[in-house]
């Protein structure tokens, strides 16, 4: 297939050393996917804000050389009608180590179920990292939104989300149902005819690498607790196993000891000596508790579908998905992305909040070790919100705010750096 990626004239490739540490040159090439729908609105201000923060923090010594790569609708325009995710896009994300993407529409029909899920699976980006914090002045339905300060580690490659399922009425679905009822003795499939079937894989290996990353984050960032969120009382061998694998890992690899006979356990942070609690909560109760007692939760580790629901629910507590950032991280490769989707009704209107993708860029800079530039973006975001210069999503919930367009909000962040 003909190549459509144009490598910038300048810039170097980020590499990873034998210990897995990033080696970031001063002039790295960073691939980006513009994204569908509001991707055209939020991606340009994201680049502009990052460039401005880097220029200010490093006085010209460091600079990102952006390289556009393609996925989604733009890819079909460039590569041909059926090419939603070109191989050279996957190769570039792998080779350049750190990339960022706008939201992607899940195509109706066609071979790929979700391009986002496909990217995560193909590149084995097994951690979906979504921090949730409050920016003072942001409109919120909570009385004390500042108590919500959590970091979600969502398993990104397994679960019912992996898409192992068969449509009702197909020979494949009937074959699986036949196997389950005739050979496995399953008696609880209520209606065997015209029944769709999905499979929920939850492995020890998949759980361990996610929980290991979450505990390491808890240690490195001096956080208080890690909570395993699951529905293991009902789905004992999948969600229940996730909880058990998680507790076992905390004990076997981090020396956690049972609290009052367990299952909760605790260990001391090897860096600070501070106690870290490892606990669990059942998912439905958790969704109540994050509203009523958010201060009791800190780092969260959960499975793919729970993590999807929880990240939008928690985002709503602190201003909505317009400012909810995220990252998909694997061993040595990371692809940063907003929590929200393509919001098609707003596409091209220069209206939506670019904050989610800009803060995903802020996470990317921190991941690269460019903390001074990342701090400037946080400062700019705090300043723009405190000045009540905001996009429509905040404006409609705030008194006496000044309504800005998507691009103007990006500029307001730069003005407050
Ligand atoms: N990672 C990804 O790329 C994701 C892709 N998707 C895909 O996106 C498409 C649309 O999904 P949909 O369910 O509508 O979810 P979206 O997240 O795209 O939009 C839902 C609503 O959230 C609000 N919203 C979203 N983004 C912003 C923003 N930047 N600023 C302010 N408000 C925002 C809007 O609310 P309001 O109407 O109240 O203004 C919008 O109508 C689907 O094809 C889906 O598969 C979905 C999620 C993630
Ligand atoms: O891929 C999609 O269409 C949806 C993904 C999603 O909602 C998410 O990852 O939060
Ligand atoms: Mg989602």
From TrEMBL:
<feature type="domain" description="Isopropylmalate dehydrogenase-like">
    <location>
        <begin position="29"/>
        <end position="413"/>
    </location>
</feature>
<dbReference type="GO" id="GO:0000287">
    <property type="term" value="F:magnesium ion binding"/>
</dbReference>
<feature type="binding site">
    <location>
        <position position="353"/>
    </location>
    <ligand>
        <name>NADP(+)</name>
    </ligand>
</feature>
<feature type="binding site">
    <location>
        <position position="396"/>
    </location>
    <ligand>
        <name>NADP(+)</name>
    </ligand>
</feature>
<dbReference type="GO" id="GO:0006097">
    <property type="term" value="P:glyoxylate cycle"/>
</dbReference>
<feature type="binding site">
    <location>
        <position position="308"/>
    </location>
    <ligand>
        <name>Mg(2+)</name>
    </ligand>
</feature>
<feature type="modified residue" description="Phosphoserine">
    <location>
        <position position="114"/>
    </location>
</feature>
<keyword id="KW-0521">NADP</keyword>
<feature type="binding site">
    <location>
        <begin position="340"/>
        <end position="346"/>
    </location>
    <ligand>
        <name>NADP(+)</name>
    </ligand>
</feature>
<dbReference type="InterPro" id="IPR019818">
    <property type="entry name" value="IsoCit/isopropylmalate_DH_CS"/>
</dbReference>
<feature type="binding site">
    <location>
        <position position="154"/>
    </location>
    <ligand>
        <name>D-threo-isocitrate</name>
    </ligand>
</feature>
<dbReference type="GO" id="GO:0006099">
    <property type="term" value="P:tricarboxylic acid cycle"/>
</dbReference>
<feature type="binding site">
    <location>
        <position position="120"/>
    </location>
    <ligand>
        <name>D-threo-isocitrate</name>
    </ligand>
</feature>
<dbReference type="GO" id="GO:0004450">
    <property type="term" value="F:isocitrate dehydrogenase (NADP+) activity"/>
</dbReference>
<feature type="binding site">
    <location>
        <position position="105"/>
    </location>
    <ligand>
        <name>NADP(+)</name>
    </ligand>
</feature>
<keyword id="KW-0464">Manganese</keyword>
<feature type="binding site">
    <location>
        <position position="116"/>
    </location>
    <ligand>
        <name>D-threo-isocitrate</name>
    </ligand>
</feature>
<dbReference type="InterPro" id="IPR004439">
    <property type="entry name" value="Isocitrate_DH_NADP_dimer_prok"/>
</dbReference>
<protein>
    <recommendedName>
        <fullName>Isocitrate dehydrogenase [NADP]</fullName>
        <ecNumber>1.1.1.42</ecNumber>
    </recommendedName>
</protein>
<keyword id="KW-0816">Tricarboxylic acid cycle</keyword>
<comment type="function">
    <text>Catalyzes the oxidative decarboxylation of isocitrate to 2-oxoglutarate and carbon dioxide with the concomitant reduction of NADP(+).</text>
</comment>
<feature type="modified residue" description="N6-acetyllysine">
    <location>
        <position position="143"/>
    </location>
</feature>
<keyword id="KW-0479">Metal-binding</keyword>
<feature type="modified residue" description="N6-succinyllysine">
    <location>
        <position position="101"/>
    </location>
</feature>
<dbReference type="Pfam" id="PF00180">
    <property type="entry name" value="Iso_dh"/>
</dbReference>
<dbReference type="InterPro" id="IPR024084">
    <property type="entry name" value="IsoPropMal-DH-like_dom"/>
</dbReference>
<feature type="binding site">
    <location>
        <position position="114"/>
    </location>
    <ligand>
        <name>D-threo-isocitrate</name>
    </ligand>
</feature>
<keyword id="KW-0597">Phosphoprotein</keyword>
<comment type="similarity">
    <text>Belongs to the isocitrate and isopropylmalate dehydrogenases family.</text>
</comment>
<feature type="binding site">
    <location>
        <position position="130"/>
    </location>
    <ligand>
        <name>D-threo-isocitrate</name>
    </ligand>
</feature>
<keyword id="KW-0329">Glyoxylate bypass</keyword>
<feature type="modified residue" description="N6-succinyllysine">
    <location>
        <position position="243"/>
    </location>
</feature>
<keyword id="KW-0460">Magnesium</keyword>
<comment type="subunit">
    <text>Homodimer.</text>
</comment>
<keyword id="KW-0560">Oxidoreductase</keyword>
<feature type="site" description="Critical for catalysis">
    <location>
        <position position="231"/>
    </location>
</feature>
<feature type="site" description="Critical for catalysis">
    <location>
        <position position="161"/>
    </location>
</feature>
<feature type="binding site">
    <location>
        <position position="392"/>
    </location>
    <ligand>
        <name>NADP(+)</name>
    </ligand>
</feature>
<dbReference type="GO" id="GO:0051287">
    <property type="term" value="F:NAD binding"/>
</dbReference>
């Amino acid at each position: 297939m003909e190549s459509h990626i144009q490598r910038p004239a300048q810039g170097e490739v980020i590499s990873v050393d034998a210990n897995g540490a990033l080696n970031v040159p001063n002039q790295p090439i960073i691939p980006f996917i513009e994204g569908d729908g509001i991707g055209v609105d939020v991606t340009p201000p994201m680049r502009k804000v990052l460039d401005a923060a880097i220029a200010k923090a490093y006085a010209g010594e460091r600079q990102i050389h952006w390289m556009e790569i393609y996925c989604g609708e733009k890819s079909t325009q460039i590569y041909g009608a059926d090419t939603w995710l070109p191989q050279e896009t996957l190769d570039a994300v792998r080779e350049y180590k750190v990339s960022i993407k706008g939201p992607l529409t899940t195509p109706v029909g066609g071979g790929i179920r979700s391009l986002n899920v496909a990217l995560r699976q193909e590149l084995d980006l097994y951690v979906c990292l979504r921090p949730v914090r409050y920016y003072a002045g942001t409109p919120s339905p909570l009385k004390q939104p500042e108590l919500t300060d959590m970091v979600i580690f969502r398993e990104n490659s397994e679960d019912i989300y992996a898409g192992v399922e068969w449509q009702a009425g197909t020979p494949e679905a009937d074959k699986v149902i036949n196997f389950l009822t005739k050979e496995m003795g399953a008696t609880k499939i209520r209606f065997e005819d015209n029944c769709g079937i999905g499979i929920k894989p939850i492995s020890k290996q998949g759980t361990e690498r996610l929980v290991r990353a979450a505990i390491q984050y808890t240690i490195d960032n001096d956080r208080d607790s890690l909570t395993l969120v699951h529905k293991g009382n009902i789905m004992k061998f999948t969600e229940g196993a996730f909880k058990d694998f998680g507790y076992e890992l905390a004990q076997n690899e981090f020396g956690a000891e049972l609290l009052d006979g367990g299952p909760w356990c605790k260990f001391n942070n090897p860096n600070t000596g501070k106690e870290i609690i490892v606990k669990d909560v059942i998912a439905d109760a958790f969704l109540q508790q994050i509203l009523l007692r958010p201060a009791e939760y800190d780092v969260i580790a959960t499975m793919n579908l729970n993590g999807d629901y929880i990240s939008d629910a928690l985002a709503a507590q602190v201003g909505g998905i317009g400012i909810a950032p995220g990252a998909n991280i694997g061993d040595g490769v990371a692809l940063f992305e907003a929590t929200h989707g393509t919001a098609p009704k707003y596409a091209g209107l220069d209206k939506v909040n670019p904050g989610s993708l800009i803060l995903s860029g802020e996470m990317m800079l921190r991941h690269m070790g460019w903390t001074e530039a990342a701090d400037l973006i946080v400062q700019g975001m705090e300043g723009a919100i405190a000045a009540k210069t905001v996009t429509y999503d905040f404006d409609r919930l705030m008194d006496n705010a000044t309504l800005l367009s998507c691009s103007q909000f990006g500029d307001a962040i730069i003005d407050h750096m």
